[in-house]
Each structure stands twice: as structure tokens, then as C-alpha cells.
């Protein structure tokens, strides 16, 4: 495979549809290899249009996009970008097997008759093994669970051997086990030098595995390293009143020396938790629950809620409120900002 400088360059891009609707305007950002970047924004903010632009499906009226320092048409011909779609974009009733879907990732390497060579079959087998779906190879795609379907399209992207991978809402409709498996795979791909752009509403996962974040609402609101950019202030600008928002504070809520407030923001998926004095504070790190569910016992002598919500040490009523918000994403008392 040819050597390229893996990168995405979006420079002052505006996309306007035939009906006159401007989907994105004056959008600029840059990403380099060995990076996982979250694309964050409310529905209708232009995330899908940006992905279509990166895939060459819509043409900007203004500005320029380059992939690996090449125009999009050349990058596509060289199989430099792969796409993992949302579940809603796929016809699950189409009579095609898992193996056939993964083999589609090799089409760019085949002739017009699309007859796979030995190397194509090898790459498909390796891709299926990597996401643990080789036993599903001959199943019809519509028969699979949501998590299995997502793994199939990840395998297709792997078989394509593209340095740039776009994932559109990869965590929607999957269980925790599959989500963790996807995150582990993305980390491996990052270590191999891939550039991965992930569109997600799963705000609570962003600080766990994303190096950078691009936050948009028709244009780029903020972009940069996650620890510097992914904060409450920028989230409130990007999402406005769409986010569900709880803020807990006051000395009466504490029984320790930590007087910081707790803020929970959710877009009806996994919530993101901030604790600190200002809206610029970074989000809380993922908590290590250390619960042996299979044996129905905790690896700690602490009460269950203390274990789940460490380092918070509020009274049990407060802990229950936070836990229900973080786990469920929606509570009766969660009001828009």
C-alpha cells in the first residue's frame, strides 16, 4: 500500500443544498494520523453533511477538503477513507450475507467483475476475526443483533485497509459489551496510525477514548484536544437548550472536604459528569466500578452506591439521583437548560 501523510483538512467549507438550505458554513479544522476525534453536535448541526462531504457525496459551494493531502476524488480512488454508517441508513432486509458485506470493503481493489482474489479473501477473514464475527459469516445481515450488525460494518472498514475511518453513531443501539469492544478496537487502530472521526451523542464516553473533539453547530464552535475543549461551557453553546442538565451544589450536600459542585449533562445517551468550580473544568474520569456481576459480589467492602459513585461521598439520596441520571440518561427532574 502506498505511503501517505494521513490527515483531514477542512478549510472554510460551506455546503448548501438545492432547496437553499445551508447545512454547514465556513467550517475549518485539521486532524492528523494516530488520532481519535469525536464529532459532537445536536441533531441537524451538520454532522451528516460533513460526513457526506468527506465521502464526496455532496460538493461544497465554497472551501476545500483534502484527505491525506489529496482532493477527495483521488483519495477515494486510492481507498484512503472508510465509512461505518448509522443503522438507519442500511436496508437490513436485503438478501446479503455477513461475508458479502465485509467483502464489499475490498471492491476498490477488484476489477469490474468484482471477482475476489486470494488476498481479498484473506483480508476479509482477518477483519471478521478481529471483531469476532467469523462464526456469523454465512448469516443474513438482517438476522443479527444491533451490536453484531455494527461489528459487521466495522469489519468491512477494516477489510478496506483505509488509513482514515469515519464512524457515524457507532454506539447507538449496542450493549455495553459491544461498546467496550468498539472502543478497544478504535484504540488499537489509533496505535496503528489510523485517523478516526467518530460522530456521537454518547457524551460520557468522549473523554475516555477521544484525543480530540470537533464541536459543531452548522460551523465549528470549538476544536482541539479533549481536555482543553470538551467542557461544560462549550457543550452548552453547541447544544443550547437541547441538553438535559442537573447541577448539584451546596455545603449541606457534602460530608467530606471536597466542596466542588457536580454537573450532569446528557443528550439522552450516556451522560457526561463535570465536577469543579467553573464551566471550563474538564469532565470527570471514568469510574472503575470493580463489580463482579457474575458472582453477584463487590470487590470492595464499601456500599454499592459508594462504590459506583466514588469519589463522590454525598448522602444516599443524592447518590441515587446522580446514579439514575448517569445510567438512565433521563429523569423526571431533568429540565432543559
From TrEMBL:
<keyword id="KW-0813">Transport</keyword>
<dbReference type="InterPro" id="IPR003593">
    <property type="entry name" value="AAA+_ATPase"/>
</dbReference>
<dbReference type="Pfam" id="PF00005">
    <property type="entry name" value="ABC_tran"/>
</dbReference>
<comment type="similarity">
    <text>Belongs to the ABC transporter superfamily.</text>
</comment>
<dbReference type="InterPro" id="IPR003439">
    <property type="entry name" value="ABC_transporter-like_ATP-bd"/>
</dbReference>
<protein>
    <submittedName>
        <fullName>Iron transport system ATP-binding protein</fullName>
    </submittedName>
</protein>
<dbReference type="GO" id="GO:0016887">
    <property type="term" value="F:ATP hydrolysis activity"/>
</dbReference>
<dbReference type="GO" id="GO:0005524">
    <property type="term" value="F:ATP binding"/>
</dbReference>
<keyword id="KW-0547">Nucleotide-binding</keyword>
<feature type="domain" description="ABC transporter">
    <location>
        <begin position="8"/>
        <end position="243"/>
    </location>
</feature>
<dbReference type="InterPro" id="IPR027417">
    <property type="entry name" value="P-loop_NTPase"/>
</dbReference>
<keyword id="KW-0067">ATP-binding</keyword>
<dbReference type="InterPro" id="IPR050153">
    <property type="entry name" value="Metal_Ion_Import_ABC"/>
</dbReference>
<dbReference type="InterPro" id="IPR017871">
    <property type="entry name" value="ABC_transporter-like_CS"/>
</dbReference>
Amino acid at each position: 500500500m502506498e505511503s501517505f501523510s494521513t490527515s483531514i483538512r477542512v478549510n472554510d467549507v460551506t455546503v448548501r443544498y438545492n432547496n437553499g438550505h445551508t447545512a454547514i458554513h465556513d467550517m475549518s479544522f485539521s486532524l492528523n494520523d494516530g488520532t481519535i476525534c469525536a464529532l459532537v453536535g445536536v441533531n441537524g448541526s451538520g454532522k451528516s453533511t460533513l460526513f457526506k462531504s468527506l465521502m464526496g457525496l455532496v460538493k461544497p459551494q465554497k472551501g476545500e477538503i483534502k484527505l491525506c493531502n489529496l482532493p477527495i476524488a483521488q483519495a477515494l480512488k486510492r481507498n484512503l477513507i472508510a465509512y461505518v454508517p448509522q443503522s438507519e441508513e442500511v436496508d437490513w432486509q436485503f438478501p446479503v450475507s455477513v461475508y458479502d458485506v465485509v467483502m464489499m470493503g475490498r471492491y476498490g481493489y477488484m476489477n469490474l467483475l468484482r471477482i475476489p482474489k486470494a488476498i481479498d479473501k484473506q483480508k476479509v477473514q482477518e477483519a471478521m476475526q478481529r471483531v469476532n464475527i467469523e462464526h456469523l459469516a454465512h448469516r443474513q445481515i438482517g438476522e443479527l443483533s444491533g451490536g453484531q450488525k455494527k461489528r459487521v460494518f466495522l469489519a468491512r472498514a477494516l477489510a478496506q485497509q483505509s488509513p482514515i475511518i469515519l464512524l457515524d453513531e457507532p454506539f447507538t443501539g449496542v450493549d455495553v459489551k459491544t461498546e467496550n469492544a468498539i472502543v478497544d478496537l478504535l484504540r488499537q487502530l489509533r496505535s496503528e496510525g489510523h485517523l478516526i472521526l467518530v460522530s456521537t451523542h454518547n457524551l460520557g464516553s468522549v473523554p475516555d477514548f477521544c484525543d480530540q473533539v470537533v464541536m459543531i453547530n452548522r460551523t465549528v464552535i470549538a476544536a482541539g484536544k479533549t481536555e482543553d475543549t470538551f467542557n461544560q461551557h462549550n457543550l452548552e453553546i453547541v447544544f443550547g437548550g437541547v441538553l438535559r442538565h442537573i447541577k448539584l451544589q451546596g455545603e449541606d450536600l457534602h460530608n467530606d472536604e471536597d466542596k466542588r459542585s457536580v454537573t450532569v449533562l446528557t443528550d439522552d445517551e450516556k451522560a457526561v459528569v463535570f465536577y469543579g468550580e467553573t464551566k471550563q473544568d474538564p469532565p470527570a474520569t471514568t469510574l472503575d466500578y470493580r463489580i463482579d456481576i457474575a458472582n453477584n459480589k463487590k470487590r470492595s467492602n464499601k456500599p454499592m452506591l459508594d462504590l459506583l459513585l466514588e469519589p463522590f461521598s454525598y448522602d444516599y439520596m443524592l447518590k441515587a439521583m446522580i446514579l439514575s441520571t448517569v445510567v438512565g440518561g433521563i429523569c423526571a427532574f431533568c429540565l432543559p437548560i
